[in-house]
Amino acid sequence: MDGFSDNDISHVVDADKAHVWHHLIQHKPFETVDPRVIVEGKGMRVWDAKGREYLDAVSGGVWTVNVGYGRTQIADAVRDQLVKLNYFAGSAGSIPGALYAEKLIGKMPGMSRVYYCNSGSEANEKAFKMIRQIAHKRYGGKKTKILYRERDYHGGTIGTMSAGGQDERNMQYGPFVPDFVRVPHCMEYRAQWDLSGEAYAERAVQAIEEVILAEGPDTVGGLCLEPITAGGGVITPPEGYWPRVQALCDKYDILLHIDEVVCGIGRTGTWFGYQHYGIRPDFVTMAKGVASGYAAIGVCVTTEAVFEMFKDDAADPLNHFRDISTFGGCTAGPAAALENMRIIEDEGLLENTTKMGERMMGNLQALMEKHRVVGDVRGKGLFQGIELVTDRATKEPVAEKDVGAVVAECSNLGVIIGASNRSVPGLNNVLCFSPALIATPDDIDQITGAVDKALGKVFG
Ligand code: PLP
Q1: Which CATH class for the 9-65+349-459 domain?
Q2: Which residue stretches, if any, does this entry annotate as coiled coil (predicted)?
């Protein structure tokens, strides 16, 4: 690393060990091993403090760095913007804010308004607040309930955890916010009913309808779903699921909120995951890939019809959305997001994602032929996963420590892969792959090659 001696780097690692509270992981192991400190990135690759190179198959660990590392075009645009104007509260406009909103809406037919904030959780909170306010403004305080789905994840705040379908993540953090109601998952591989394909999709949507009827349709204002469930196990919907979900929302006057924090901005080969399924959301939230981690940004996009509901009565002092996100006014986010989107367009990264996604899917299916432990291969574009089971007939999940061993072995082989979140106890058995959208055929083969070797080593 330029300008850093070995002593400097060992000081960094010591300082990290002494003072940084890392996200998501247990710290006990750091009594005997050093935490991973990533110091540099270029394209698809990162280097740690010990100088080891890794191929990053998870875009910064959590589906974020969609256009890859070391993009000076984004860094320069952010720098120029910060020097010109770093910040002004979001009650006023800004040049990058206006231009990014225009460009983004151009990719989202039917959508109209862009609300800026800082993270995926925050973007989801904004949508929840809007749904709640509509319930009060339009429905006399009824329709405050928001439905969410088992195994979906929407963030780490208490509000978004109230809509959290991953039990292990929620344990010990309750009590949660009232009027969030869970609906059953839709995962054909672990179907709750003895059905498959469209029949399973129909039953899964019927299960949502049963919840709506039990709660009372006049109490349900929103339905929040991931288009493809990410951390909960890379769960793709069966054919016919989404049009039926849309019809259900139309039937009961329920606002459809699609959480695109992972699927958004090209990850699945279209700008947004929902665009594969022909649905018309009322809210679309996004973060991670919006600026590929070059700046913090979250976005809640709505239709004009939603926006109109907040300006229909100027005489009412409560009529507007009385919300602010201080750093939603920081110009670094939209400045980075604009360049991020330009790169995806200029380099044809949606097309690349589709093509490389097909290659990855083919490679993973070949692994399924070879390794009995691979029970299922799922995903779309460069967003894929494989579910590991001890027995394909019973679908008994492998032990979590074995999943960890595969991840560790891939790391030893120089490839960083991911595993599903602490979702359902005993079911954290999905390996996740989400390389940057710039991946080449060689990158894809290196990733799946490492997984092949790691599966062989751990499971024989
Ligand atoms: N929604 C989904 C689908 C996510 O996967 C995540 C984070 O992993 C979030 C929301 C929360 O985003 P953030 O961590 O930026 O708050």
Answers
A1: alpha beta
A2: none
